[in-house]
Each structure stands twice: as structure tokens, then as C-alpha cells.
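pinging the channel bc i need a second pair of eyes. not urgent but kinda urgent?? the chain im working w is below, pasted from the shared doc
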Amino acid sequence: MSRSDDVVGEECSAGLGVTLRVRRAATPMTEGQLTGGERRQWHALATGPRKSDWLLGRTALKALLSEAADTSTLSFPHPRLSLTHAGGVAVAVAAGLGIGGDPVVVAGTGVDHEPWRTVDARMARFFLHAREQSTSLGLLRAWTVKEALYKAVPANLGLTLLDIALDDPDAPNGGASGPRGERLRYTVIDTAAGPLAAAVCLEDCRVTV
């Protein structure tokens, strides 16, 4: 985590055209720092990696909102909030105003972070269309982008990463289309721990049927 969360947020905001606040966490809070509702959610989880990841994710989310916030009332996907955890790091983001302070209506927000690793080229066909598989971003960054875009689609139940198409597979900041004509924006940046991608679906970009 060499760059501060504020700097990472500024870099993502510039790529998205929407202000994005970012908070990362590598050390989980204690059970005593959870609200009553959060504690009940935590105890309902089976002991194991998922329980540890949940606590780490809530640490990042409460750092983003406030330590006193009761995150047990939140559900995901959320129009302006998103959360991810991988490789011992959790990332929480909140979408705000447009760059320059212009008000925007954000219909969906997504974030994904992946630890540095090599992605087997044979796996590309499961998340990239044929024209996307030669992306100069590299497969790991492209995977991270698709995951963030998936989370930003407001009604993503039943969708796969192949339901989302990148406008320009080589662009680190760009647009994408969802299966129902949703228009999305994304950005991907490199951090010391791995690539981090953020995405938004703006309400004025959505197609209603």
C-alpha cells in the first residue's frame, strides 16, 4: 500500500469522471468494534476464510463511512458503495459527485482488487470475448476490470463476465456495455499489492425497457 488511499482515490476519480473515495484495510478490527447488528452477522458466518474476509471487509467499509456506522443495514450491490477483498487486503469505495462537483446519479458502483499473479491464457475465454483476449492490459488487469464492471451493473443476478463488453480492450480508462444496454465506465490502476479496478453505471447511461 505504498500510495495513500486518497491518492489512489484521486487516480480512480480521474479515470472515471466521478469522484471516488477509497479505503483499504490489511488488519481487521476487533469484534468489540462491531455494532450489535454487525456482530450478529459475523457470528452467523461459519468459521473460516469467509468469516475473516467479512471482518476485514467491514474494517475497510467502516473506515470509509465512519467507525460508528452500522454497516449491517447495507446490502450489495449498492448504487454508490462497493467492497472487495483478496490477498489479505480489503478495499471499500464510495462514488460521489462528478469531476468538477457536478451532480451525477450513480446507478451502480463496483470495485475489484486482485493480488499479482499470472492468469493462465486458457482461462481468458471464460471472461473475455474473442476480440478482448489480446488486450494489452494483460489478463489479470482485464479480469479485475470485468469483475468491477459486473458489480456496477445494478441488476447483475444471473449475469456472467461475458455479458459485459469492453469498448476498447486496451484502454485502462474506458467504457463498457451491459447485456441490457447499460453504459458503464471503468478505470484500472496498479498498486503495490496488485491491480485495482473501479467502475460506475450512471443512470443517464442506462437503457430502460
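so The chain has a mean pLDDT of 93. and Helices lie at 5-16, 36-44, 49-65, 139-152. — does that match what u expected or am i reading it wrong
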